[in-house]
Design a protein that fits this description.
about 900 residues, mainly beta, Elongation Factor Tu (Ef-tu), domain 3, Jelly Rolls, 20-stranded mixed β-sheet, elongated
C-alpha cells in the first residue's frame, strides 16, 4: 500500500496538498504523514485512512502528524483511523480550540481502531514526544445539571436547572435513584426546549428533585469504531518536555478504554482518555463526556505518571456499563485535580494502582456512583473535598493510600473503608462529613484486614463537633464524654478481635534534653476481663516508659510518666488492649492527642494543646484546698457566688473545671498571675482585688482605717453620682465596683465619736485606696449629749439653714453641735452640703465654715430663742442668723473654759469672773 505525505498547507481533499498531487484514497492500508510545517485541514465527509499499524516508534503508525492536522470548521467530517493516529514531536492535532471551536451545525467525529478485532490495538496516541499539542473543542453546552422537580415513574419528559445548547438527539444520563450505580439510565431527547425536554422513552423509576442529569453528546466526538474492540486516547509527553499542551473542552469520548493495549509501557494508552506529562503545562479536560453503553470498554479517564503540574479534569460526565468500568485512574506521580465531575455509573468512581509519592491530587465537589467510590492500592496522597459518594460495598477501598476527606456526603451500603490488600497500612482522615448509618458501623467488612497500624480517623461526623473516631479492622475507638476523668473526651477502645493484643497509637513531641511529664488514666470494664489490663508505653528518641493498669475493672488508674529525651523528634505512645470479648471496652484519658483528646485539665498544670505537662505557677493551693474555699460556681447559670480574694476565686474555679463533671464545660476564667482574674461568668458577692466578669472590670475602693459603725458615703465626682452610702458593720471599707475609665471619687465618713472625714482620690483600673484615719471627737464625747435625741433642730437643705423650733425658747450651742454630728451620720446628712461645715475648737467655741456650707440659723417658731452655753460664729465673722429668722439671742464673744468649770461668755468691754468648786470658765470680749 502507498504512503501519502503532505507537501504543503492545504485541504485534505486538495491534490496540491500531497506529494503525489493526488489526495489519499479513502481505504484502509494507506499510511498518512502530515509533514512538519504543514497544516492540513481534514474536510472529508467520511473517510477511512491508515495502514493498520501501531507502535511507539513514530514512523510505524497509520497516521503520523509531524505538522498540524486540523478538523474543518465549515464541513462536518468523519475520520476513521485504520491504525493509530499518532502525534509526533512538535505535532498538533486540532479538532477545535477554545479560541476557534468546531462551531454549531458542524460535527467532527474520529473513529479509532477501525477494522480491528483486537481491543486496544490502535488509538489516538503520542508517547514520550516533545512539543506540540492536542486540541479538541466543540460547542459549549451544559454538561451536568439537576432535575428542577421530581419526576414520576413512567415520565416521558424532564425539567432541568440548566440545558444550554441541548438539542433533539442528545443522549442524557439520569443518575441512580439510590446508591446502586446500575440504576442509572440513559435516554435520548426527542423534543421540547429548555428547560423541559421530551424523552424517547419513559423513565421506569421515579427521581427526586435535585437528581443529577448529564449530557453525553458533543459535536466533537472521539469513539471506538466498534465497541466490542475499544480503542484508547493516550498521550504521555517526554520526561524533560515543558511545552506539550493538552486542551480539550466540550468533547464526547465514546466506548473507549481497554486493559490491554498496543503498548502497555505507554500506560495512558491502556485507559479510555489519558493525557499526561512530567513537566509539561497542566492538561485541561473540561466539560467533556466519557461514556460507554457497551459491555466491553472498561476504562474512562486515565493519566498521571510523574506530572509536576496539576492537570485539571473539570465538569466531566462519566458513564459506563461494563462490570469492570473505572471512572478515573491516576498513576505514578499524578498530581491531578478533579473538579465538579459526576461519575454516574462505574465499578470504581476513582482508582489508583501506582505509586504517587509526594505529589498530590485533589477531588473537589462532584458526585460519584460505584461499587466503591474510590479504590487506592498504593501510596497515593489524595485530598477529597466536598463530593457526594454513593456505593454498594465500601466508599473507600484502600491499600496504602493516604487520603484526607473534607465535607463529603458518604452514602455507603456497608463500611466506609475496606482493605483491598491484606495487611496494608492505608490511612485516611475525614473532616466534617455526613455518613449513612451503614458507613459509620463498627465492623470492617472484607476478607483482607488492614495492618493494625492503619486508621480511619473521623472528625465531626454528621455535624456533631464532638464525634471523633479512629477505626481499623481490629478495633473501634471513639471519643467518649460519658466516661472520662481529666479530658473533654476520653478515648473509648473496643477490640474487634477477642483475646488478641491490639494497639492504639499516637505520637508525642520530644525535645532533646528537656524533661517531660505525661499524666493520664487507664480504665476497663468488667466485660473486658482482668487477665490482660490495658497498658501504655512510650518509645523513641531515647525514651522508654510504661504503665500497666492494675487488674481492677470499672475504676480509673492514674499514671505519671517522667522522662528526658536524648534526641528531638516524635515519641510513639502505644496503648495495648486485649479483651476476652469483643463487647469489652478500655479507656485512655488525660493525654492530649488531636483529634481524639483535644482538651486535658490536670490541676496544677497548664492546660495546653500538648501531652507534656507544664507546672502552673499561678496556683498556690492544693486541689482539695482550692475546692474548699467559700466559692460556688453555677455553670448552668454562669455565676460565681463568692466572699473571697481574687486569687481564691481563681484557684477554686481552676480546681472546679478540673473535676470530671466539668471537663466539658467551657474554660470561663483566665489569669496571668493568679492575683486577679477574668471570667465570662457573673460574680455575685464580695471579691477582694480587681477582676473582670460579664459586667466588666471590677475593682475595689478601700479604706482600711474606717472604724466599725461609721456612716460612709462614696461619691463619683466625675459623674455626679452617689455609689455607696452605708454604715460599716466592721472596721474597714472594701467596696467593689466596675471600672471603664478613671473617675474622681470622694469619701465621706462620720461616726458620733469621731470627727467628720472627707478625702478624694482617682479610681483607676487598679482600684482606689484611701489611707486617711478618723480622729476622735473629744468635744462631742466630753459634752455627753446624744445628738440623736436632740429634736429642736432640723436641716433645711434647700436654703442651707438649720431650722430651730424650741418650745421653751432656750437651747445650748452644745446641743446644736451634737445634733449636727448626728445628722452627718445619717444617709441624708452625709450626702448633704452640711457635711463638715461645723467644727469645735473646744467645748465652748464652735465655728461654721461658710466656704464648706453657708449655714445660717433660722428660728421658725413665733417665740424668741436663746442659744447659750458657748460661742457660735462663722469663719468670716458674719452673722450666723438668717435674715428671715425669728428672734434669736446668742452669747456674744469668745468663751474660755477653766478645768472643771462651765462655759460662760463675756459681753464686749466687760470682765466677768465666775468661781466654781470644780473649776472656772472665762470669757472676754
Amino acid at each position: 500500500m502507498a504512503t501519502y505525505t503532505s507537501t504543503a498547507t492545504g485541504l485534505w481533499s486538495a491534490g496540491a496538498t500531497w506529494v503525489s498531487g493526488v489526495k489519499p484514497p479513502s481505504a484502509a492500508g494507506h499510511k498518512i504523514v502530515i509533514a512538519a510545517g504543514h497544516t492540513v485541514t481534514y474536510d472529508e465527509a467520511d473517510g477511512t485512512y491508515g495502514d493498520n499499524t501501531s507502535s511507539t516508534t513514530v514512523a510505524n503508525n497509520g497516521i503520523v502528524v509531524h505538522g498540524t492536522l486540523k478538523a474543518s470548521r465549515a464541513t462536518s467530517t468523519i475520520l476513521r483511523c485504520a491504525g493509530t493516529l499518532y502525534r509526533a514531536a512538535g505535532g498538533v492535532i486540532d479538532w477545535g480550540t477554545s479560541a476557534d471551536p468546531i462551531p454549531g451545525g458542524v460535527t467532527a467525529t474520529v473513529y479509532l481502531n477501525h477494522g480491528s478485532t483486537t481491543a486496544g490495538q490502535h488509538g489516538l496516541h503520542s508517547y514520550l514526544q516533545t512539543g506540540g499539542a492536542f486540541y479538541a473543542c466543540g460547542v459549549e453546552r451544559t454538561r451536568n445539571t439537576r432535575l428542577s422537580s421530581s419526576t414520576a415513574a413512567g415520565a416521558t419528559s424532564i425539567t432541568v436547572d440548566d440545558s444550554d445548547n441541548w438539542a433533539v438527539g442528545d443522549i442524557l444520563v439520569i443518575a441512580p435513584y439510590n446508591r446502586d450505580p446500575t440504576t442509572a439510565v440513559t435516554v435520548t431527547i426527542s423534543g421540547g426546549s429548555a428547560p423541559t425536554w421530551t424523552l424517547s422513552g419513559p423513565i421506569a423509576v421515579a427521581r427526586n428533585s435535585g437528581t443529577r442529569v448529564g449530557n453525553l453528546t458533543s459535536n466533537v466526538t472521539f469513539a471506538s469504531a466498534n465497541s466490542s474492540y475499544p480503542a484508547n486516547v493516550g498521550m504521555l509527553a517526554a520526561t524533560t518536555d515543558t511545552t506539550t499542551t493538552y486542551d480539550v473542552r466540550n468533547v464526547a469520548f465514546s466506548d473507549l478504554g481497554s486493559a490491554t493495549g498496543w503498548a502497555t509501557v505507554a500506560r495512558p494508552a491502556t485507559w479510555g482518555v489519558g493525557l499526561s506529562g512530567y513537566r509539561c503545562p497542566a492538561a485541561i479536560l473540561k466539560s467533556c463526556a466519557v461514556y460507554s453503553t457497551a459491555a466491553t470498554p472498561n476504562r474512562a479517564l486515565g493519566g498521571g505518571y510523574g506530572s509536576f503540574n496539576q492537570h485539571l479534569y473539570e465538569d466531566i460526565a462519566i458513564y459506563g456499563v461494563s462490570a469492570s468500568y473505572v471512572g478515573m485512574h491516576w498513576g505514578d506521580g499524578a498530581k491531578h485535580q478533579l473538579k465538579n465531575c459526576v461519575c454516574y455509573r462505574a465499578v470504581q468512581g476513582f482508582s489508583s494502582t501506582y505509586e504517587q509519592g509526594v505529589a498530590g491530587g485533589l477531588v473537589y465537589g462532584g458526585e460519584y456512583w460505584g461499587s466503591q467510590a474510590f479504590a487506592i492500592t498504593t501510596s497515593i496522597a489524595l485530598t477529597v473535598d466536598g463530593p457526594a459518594l454513593h456505593n454498594t460495598s465500601g466508599a473507600f477501598s484502600i491499600g496504602y493510600g493516604r487520603v484526607t476527606i473534607i465535607g463529603a456526603d458518604i452514602d455507603s451500603a456497608s463500611c466506609v473503608w475496606r482493605a483491598v490488600v491484606a495487611a496494608s497500612a492505608g490511612n485516611f482522615v475525614a473532616y466534617d462529613c455526613t455518613y449513612s448509618a451503614e458507613a459509620l458501623g463498627t465492623s470492617m467488612s472484607g476478607t483482607n484486614p488492614h495492618a493494625d497500624s492503619s486508621d480511619w480517623t473521623v472528625v465531626g461526623a454528621n455535624g456533631d463537633d464532638e464525634d471523633f473516631r479512629r477505626i481499623n479492622y481490629y478495633r473501634y475507638a471513639i471519643a467518649d464524654t460519658a466516661t472520662r476523668k481529666r479530658s473533654a473526651y476520653a478515648v473509648k477502645i473496643q477490640p474487634k478481635v477477642a483475646n488478641t493484643a491490639i494497639t492504639y497509637t499516637f505520637t508525642l513531641t520530644a525535645v532533646s534534653g528537656v524533661a517531660q511529664t505525661i499524666k493520664g488514666s487507664l480504665r476497663f470494664d468488667s466485660t473486658y476481663g482482668t487477665a490482660t489490663p490495658p497498658s501504655i508505653a512510650l518509645s523513641g528518641q531515647g525514651v522508654t516508659a510504661s504503665f500497666t493498669a492494675p487488674a481492677t475493672a470499672d475504676a480509673w488508674h492514674d499514671f505519671t510518666l517522667t522522662f528526658t529525651p536524648t534526641s528531638t523528634g516524635d515519641i510513639t505512645a502505644t496503648v495495648t488492649v486485649q479483651s476476652t470479648s469483643t463487647s469489652g471496652f478500655a479507656w485512655l484519658d488525660g493525654v492530649y492527642h488531636y483529634p481524639m483528646t483535644q482538651s486535658v485539665r490536670h490541676y496544677g498544670y497548664q492546660w495546653l494543646p500538648q501531652a507534656a505537662q507544664i507546672v502552673d505557677t499561678r496556683l498556690t493551693l492544693s486541689e482539695s484546698a482550692a475546692l474548699a474555699l467559700p466559692v460556688a460556681v453555677d455553670h448552668d447559670a454562669e455565676t460565681i457566688t463568692v466572699s473571697a480574694t481574687a486569687r481564691e476565686v481563681f484557684e477554686h474555679c481552676i480546681a472546679d473545671l478540673c473535676q470530671t463533671a466539668n471537663q466539658g464545660k467551657a474554660v470561663h476564667i483566665s489569669s496571668a498571675t493568679g492575683d486577679t482574674f477574668t471570667t465570662t461568668y457573673t460574680v455575685i458577692g464580695t471579691v477582694v482585688g480587681p477582676y473582670t466578669d460579664a459586667a466588666g472590670l471590677h475593682v475595689s475602693i478601700s479604706a482600711a482605717a474606717i472604724v466599725s459603725g461609721t456612716r460612709v458615703q462614696l461619691y463619683n465626682v466625675t459623674d455626679s453620682t452617689e455609689i455607696y452610702n452605708g454604715v460599716l458593720a466592721s472596721t474597714g471599707l472594701t467596696y467593689a465596683t466596675t471600672w471603664a475609665a478613671d473617675k474622681t471619687i470622694r469619701l465621706r465618713a462620720d461616726h458620733p465619736d469621731y470627727l467628720p472625714l472627707e478625702a478624694t482620690g482617682i479610681l483607676t483600673a487598679s482600684g482606689l485606696t484611701f489611707l486617711s484615719e478618723q480622729a476622735e471627737d473629744t468635744v462631742y464625747i466630753g459634752n455627753g449629749i446624744d445628738g440623736s435625741t436632740v429634736t429642736e433642730f432640723s436641716a433645711d437643705g434647700l436654703n442651707i439653714q438649720v431650722d430651730v423650733d424650741d418650745p421653751d425658747g432656750y437651747t445650748l450651742v452644745q446641743r446644736l453641735y451634737a445634733w449636727m454630728q448626728y445628722y452627718q451620720t445619717t444617709s441624708t446628712g452625709i450626702a448633704s452640703a452640711f457635711f463638715g461645715a461645723m467644727s469645735a475648737s473646744d467645748s465652748a467655741n464652735y465655728t461654721i465654715d461658710q466656704d464648706k456650707a453657708d449655714i445660717l440659723m433660722d428660728n421658725v417658731s413665733a417665740s424668741p430663742l436663746m442659744i447659750v452655753g458657748g460661742y457660735l460664729t462663722r469663719r468670716d465673722g458674719t452673722t450666723v442668723i438668717a435674715a428671715t429668722s425669728g428672734s434669736i439671742q446668742m452669747d456674744p464673744g469668745r468663751a474660755y473654759v477653766a478645768p472643771g468649770g462651765a462655759a460662760i461668755t463675756v459681753p464686749e468691754g466687760e470682765r466677768v469672773i465666775t468661781m466654781a468648786s470644780s473649776g472656772a470658765h472665762y470669757a472676754r470680749g
